[in-house]
């Protein structure tokens, strides 16, 4: 007889704090996506594409083998033969050198020639060995006032950073959109909001997808580093290590900003068919860094401005840091602006999320979601 009375007096579970609720939602987001076959397949394809492209670049895009030559009786002129760029093969005399040349073991013979302006003669088999001759030619030192010409490297790094940021922002952002709308359609969100706040749900989604995005970036970077080492491109890896760390530092708040915008836009609609209108502006903003650095990577004024614009700073500032074009305080200032912007957009997204998540049917106007009324 006393059981109901005791049950009625049983303590109820303590409500979850905002932090605990956010972590639970983040864990749910991570587990659901990691278990998705589509997510895993896309990751494998991306890794194979990146690693395969780097290996192919090393195999087919690298420099040619050094010409092999036999040096015979060059005398004092032997000091003019460069130590780099030519592989010297030993030959006892001219007859031995000619035998090596006819057998295809060497590309040319270098010997002394008193009538030559440089004191050397280069002998080929059936064609003039112009490549070897060019290596023996004297050339003046070349310098530039603006430092080393790194146009190609600048383009490659710009495309790499811009493409990774755009790809991860859009794919993870669209996952947030899809999950949010599905939860509204299936009314699961009503069950979730009976236990946690809309702010916790938003924070958990952004946190979970941020962890996934950073994890994907780390996996892609690791695959790229392994491919560079295996293909003998250690020098490229050494150059990219520091800028990649700067990129990750700027990527985190930049992604949070974009993810908050995707989540807020998804909360305004109740059907996947209506999502295009609300997520297109965010998708365009996610593409800005890529197009800015690809088309204007060699325009200092535009790159400087882009370094302080929150949507392009995650790519523009690390690129400028890589080429030592930013003063010491600039990345700190740009990062502070980016962090502040991320916080502001998260607060705005939380307001939109809490005022729109339980509303189904017609699209919620943005002005109404941000308004102060009911």
Automatic annotation (TrEMBL):
Chain ranges passing through the membrane: 38-60, 155-177, 211-232, 244-269, 290-311, 331-353
Subcellular localization(s) per the UniProt record: Cell membrane
Q: Which residues form a coiled coil?
A: none
**Membrane topology of this protein:** Multi-pass membrane protein
Q: For the ABC-2 type transporter transmembrane domain, which residue ranges apply?
A: 37-350
Q: Which UniProt keywords apply?
A: Cell membrane, Membrane, Transmembrane, Transmembrane helix
Q: What is its main location?
A: membrane
According to UniProt, the name of this protein is ABC transporter permease
Q: Which organism is it from?
A: Nesterenkonia aethiopica
